[in-house]
Amino acid sequence: MTQAIPRRSGEWILVVEDEPRLREALAELLVRMASDFGEVVVAASGEDALALCRDASPSVAFLDIRLPGMSGLQLAEVIADETRIVFVTAHQEFAVDAFEQGAVDYLLKPVTAERLQACLDRLRRRDRAAAGELQKFLRAFSAPSPPTYLRWLTASAGRRTYLIEVDDIVYLKSDSKYTRLVCRDSQHLIEESLKKIVGRLDPERFRQIHRSTVVNLREVLLVERDDTATGTGLVKFRNHPEVVRISAPYLRELRMFLV
Fold this sequence. Notes:
Number of domains: 2
Order of helices and strands: EHEHEHEHEHHEEEEEHEEEEEH
Strand order of the largest sheet: 2-1-3-4-5
Number of strands: 15
CATH topology of the largest domain: Rossmann fold
CATH class of the largest domain: Alpha Beta
């Protein structure tokens, strides 16, 4: 629940946290330890916090990163020009070092009095961060991470479990609810459908050539069209003698891709 704020020129602290217990605990610590920063005001969502900031910006905002609706990162981008930002989260992610070295601080839940004191001391020592520097950190943190694709698959046979490097796979073929992995020197059957695996493979490396077959493009030697009028073809590999069929919808796309 938000607390109404009259129009003011003095300093105040904003706490935005959707979990009531954590919100009140942090607010109580700040009332005791940060009276020189002004009144402590709380909000349960980014939208509520924005409403509180319409008349006056807080000097410091303690923002939970994961909030319903508008995230703490999105809120920070709106208010950062006038406000020093401290992110509060239960997840220690890749940007921690950037925040620690930059203009914003970063607190892990549950926030301890000792860690909060260090944060407040830092805020007291520093001037307000330049908007450009803060925006740089925000962009680095909120930019989408590059997709990560499968590097390994495991296949079990009796009491043995094989670790298969995706780069060694020549092609994958659907086999009912299983998938057959055909490698240069071996074959394996795994209990996972081809449909589920395809979405986790690098599309620049693996292409579907049939509704039941996906090939490793680095292993493809050539694509050959049939003499018939079916529009289908054959795929031959560099390091494997087997030949697999390519259906008509995929033939033109794959031939153009390999040119």
